[in-house]
């Protein structure tokens, strides 16, 4: 299967999930994260859930990070050049959905990608080598290329690793880990 076919397959699998399954799987992923040795850092980047796409509910992870008093960074997407700007999430941060239903900060204190130590990454599918398939616009590959090489890149997936091979491009950034409801994969 090529990336476009896999993207379509996994979007459909996710669309078939019930609201209860999304919540249960999201909580299980957050619990898997608690077992990992990644809580000694300061700056964590987290995506906010696109509910309409049945993405992982990252509120559970947000609560963990807040409880551990970490600096949480969220992004604003720029579709004209497929880039992102990153902002520190604070109590007074205003969040607004863009035309693609992506919750984003309206403004705030900008954080540079090189400051980030852990990045949680949305995806549709991933393979045994740590390559992932997202929505296909390259937002995260561009963003991750700006991070330090030692930045932990952690994918979050409702589904286990795919056996279907797909071609990784030269600019695709590999994950260090991918966390599913049942397992933590290390690459």
TrEMBL record:
GO molecular function: 5-formyltetrahydrofolate cyclo-ligase activity
Pfam family, one: 5-FTHF_cyc-lig
Alphabetic keyword roster: ATP-binding, Ligase, Magnesium, Metal-binding, Nucleotide-binding
Entry superkingdom: Bacteria
Catalytic reactions on record: (6S)-5-formyl-5,6,7,8-tetrahydrofolate + ATP = (6R)-5,10-methenyltetrahydrofolate + ADP + phosphate
InterPro entries, alphabetized: FTHF_cligase (IPR002698), FTHF_cligase-like_sf (IPR024185), NagB/RpiA_transferase-like (IPR037171)
EC class (word): ligase
The EC number(s) this enzyme carries: 6.3.3.2
Cofactor list: Mg(2+)
The family this protein is said to belong to: Belongs to the 5-formyltetrahydrofolate cyclo-ligase family.
Protein name: 5-formyltetrahydrofolate cyclo-ligase
Source species of the chain: Winogradskyella rapida
């Amino acid at each position: 299967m090529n990336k476009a076919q896999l993207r379509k397959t996994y979007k459909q699998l996710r669309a078939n999930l019930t609201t209860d399954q999304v919540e249960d799987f999201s909580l299980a992923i957050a619990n898997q994260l608690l077992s990992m040795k990644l809580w000694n850092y300061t700056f964590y980047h987290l995506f906010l859930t696109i509910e309409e796409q049945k993405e992982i509910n990252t509120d559970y992870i947000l609560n963990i990070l807040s409880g551990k008093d970490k600096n949480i960074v969220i992004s604003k997407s720029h579709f004209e050049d497929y880039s992102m700007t990153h902002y520190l999430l604070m109590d007074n941060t205003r969040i607004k959905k863009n035309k693609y239903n992506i919750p984003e900060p309206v403004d705030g204190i900008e954080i540079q990608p090189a400051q980030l130590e852990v990045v949680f990454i949305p995806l549709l599918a991933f393979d045994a080598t740590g390559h992932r398939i997202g929505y296909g616009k390259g937002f995260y590959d561009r963003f991750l290329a700006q991070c330090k090489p030692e930045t932990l890149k952690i994918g979050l997936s409702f589904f286990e690793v795919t056996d279907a091979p797909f071609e990784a491009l030269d600019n695709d950034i590999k994950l260090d880990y991918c966390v599913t409801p049942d397992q933590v994969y290390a690459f």
